[in-house]
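Protein in question kept in full:
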Amino acid sequence: QVQLQESGGGPVNSGGSLTLSCGASKYPSDDYCMGWFRQAPGKEREKVASINSFGTTSYADVVKGRFTISQDNNKKTLYLELNNLKPEDSAVYYCAAMRGIVWDCGIARDYEHWGQGTQVTVSS
């Protein structure tokens, strides 16, 4: 069973930065995708960024150039660096993992394992 635990969320002013971390008990398989998703109240969960076991990354257009996803395989930890934060970035951020690799690391329903989320609140 893959267990994921996010940390690093909190309140931040507009224009500020945060780094989220997601520790994994293990990877789901040798080939995998891991992603960061977010969900704001009243909105659907959206994929923010993803990375596969080869290190290929993908970003949602709304965060390109501001967010950076990375992973430390030795520590089994996924990171999301959030820069130039905006109030509309406020949401609960989740990390997720799936076995195998699909095009663009798929969408939310493709992911089998989820963390409990960490709140990011950006004030203007």
Summary: The mean pLDDT is 96. Residues 11 and 40 are 15 Å apart (CA to CA). The chain is about 0% helix and 50% strand.
